[in-house]
Amino acid sequence: MTEQGCLFCRIANKEIPAKVVFEDSRIIAFEDVNPQAPVHILLIPKKHIEKISDLTKDNADMVGHLVLAANKIAAEQGIRDAGYRLTINCNKDAGQAVFHLHMHLMGGRKFAWPPG
Ligand code: 5GP
Ligand code: ZN
Fold it and tell me: Which residues have CB under 6 Å of ligand 1?
């Protein structure tokens, strides 16, 4: 399903260009336009899901699919052994700015914990 006017649906549909690093039938991964780390990739379902709190039993396996793809990309990008962070921001307090579910894969530097 394509949500009208959704930025990430438009990237998934190739209506807006992005540097795609991985794609299969269910998901697509591309470089973040404003990277916060040397490696900063966004992984999204092709189907529009607004946010992680909207997942149900019927589509919760999407998270595992995104994580396995992120692990594969991390290995390809050479950051698997050094470490990386996977982040999903849900709604306003977490800083979600684009309301199409996405997982951040970030690496290539050290990250503070706890996050700000
Ligand atoms: P959020 O804050 O919603 O978790 O993260 C949204 C992310 O999308 C941000 O890191 C932002 O830099 C990225 N972003 C926003 N617009 C675009 C775009 O048009 N193309 C790409 N590749 N990334 C985008
Ligand atoms: Zn969308």
Answer: 7, 18, 30-34, 42, 89, 95-98
